[in-house]
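User: quick one, sequence for these C-alpha cells?
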C-alpha cells in the first residue's frame, strides 16, 4: 500500500493516483486502514488494476469531491469488523465503534469495469454520479445499514448494479 495506517488519522487532498498496479488479491494498493481513519478530498483514481485500492479493517474512510474512472480493480473493500449483537441492531442504526464505516459523497464514478464497493458493514453513498460503469457498483454484506442517497445512475451496463446479503435474516437480494 502507498499509505498503511494503523491507529492514526490520514488526511489527503487534491492528489491523483494513476495506473495503480498491485499484486493480484492484495488489499489496499492506495490505502490500507487498520483501526484507523482516513479523509480524502479532491482525489482522482484512474487505472487501478488487480487488487483493492482502498481497504478498511475496523476503520473509518471518508471521501468527497473525488473522481474514479477507468479502474478494473476493486475500488473499496473491507473486512467485517467487529460483529454487532444482532438483537441490538435497530433498523437504520449507525455502526458501533470498531466497525467499518465508508462514506463517499459528491464524487464521480465513470467507465469502471471492476466492482466499485465490495464491503462488509456500513457504507453511505450520497450525491454521487455513476456513469457508464460495466462492473457491479456494490456488493454489500453484513448487519449494518447501507445508504445510497441523492445519486445518479446513467448508462451502467452490468445486469446487477447492487447485491445485498445479510446473515441476520439469512436472505439476500439485488437490483
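Assistant:
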Amino acid at each position: 500500500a502507498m499509505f498503511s495506517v494503523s491507529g492514526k488519522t490520514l488526511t489527503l487532498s487534491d492528489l491523483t493516483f494513476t495506473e495503480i498496479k498491485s499484486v493480484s488479491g492484495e488489499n489496499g494498493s492506495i490505502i490500507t486502514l487498520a483501526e484507523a481513519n482516513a479523509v480524502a478530498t479532491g482525489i482522482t483514481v484512474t487505472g487501478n488494476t488487480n487488487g483493492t485500492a482502498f481497504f478498511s479493517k475496523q476503520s473509518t474512510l471518508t471521501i468527497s469531491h473525488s473522481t474514479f474512472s477507468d479502474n478494473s480493480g476493486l475500488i473499496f473493500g473491507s473486512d467485517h469488523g467487529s460483529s454487532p449483537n444482532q438483537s441490538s441492531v435497530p433498523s437504520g442504526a449507525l455502526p458501533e465503534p470498531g466497525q467499518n464505516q465508508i462514506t463517499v459523497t459528491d464524487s464521480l464514478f465513470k467507465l469502471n469495469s471492476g466492482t466499485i464497493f465490495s464491503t462488509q458493514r456500513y457504507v453511505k453513498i450520497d450525491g454521487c454520479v455513476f456513469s457508464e460503469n460495466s462492473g457491479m457498483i456494490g456488493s454489500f454484506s453484513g448487519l449494518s445499514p447501507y445508504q445510497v442517497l441523492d445519486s445518479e445512475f446513467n448508462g451502467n451496463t452490468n445486469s446487477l448494479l447492487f447485491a445485498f446479503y445479510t446473515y441476520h435474516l439469512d436472505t439476500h437480494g439485488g437490483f
